[in-house]
Write a structure and sequence with these properties.
Strand content: 25-35%
Number of strands: 3
Structural class: alpha+beta
Number of helices: 2
Length: 83
């Protein structure tokens, strides 16, 4: 996924949140902004860096196997060996 996500400030429960829409249509909500101006300021100043870091974390997660995934892979391979 090389395209940038879009960011949109939205009112939420007396405050503001930022809705992030990724190119594949997934969405995330970033909550905790007290005003629309604060949310827009974050979008203008920090959203690009946040998107780059978030993409890097997601790529790293795909490369690593957690314990459960490792055991599942091991079970599949052992089953194939002993058939």
């Amino acid at each position: 996924m090389n395209a940038k996500p879009s960011f949109r400030p939205v009112p939420c429960h007396g405050g503001w949140q930022i809705v992030v829409t990724w190119p594949d249509a997934r969405t995330e909500q970033l909550i905790g902004y007290s005003s629309e101006a604060e949310a827009v300021k974050w979008i203008n100043n920090l959203s690009d860096r946040w998107a780059v870091k978030t993409l890097a974390k997601k790529k790293d997660r795909r490369r690593t196997l957690n314990g459960r995934a490792f055991l599942q892979l091991l079970a599949i391979r052992l089953t194939a060996v002993f058939r």
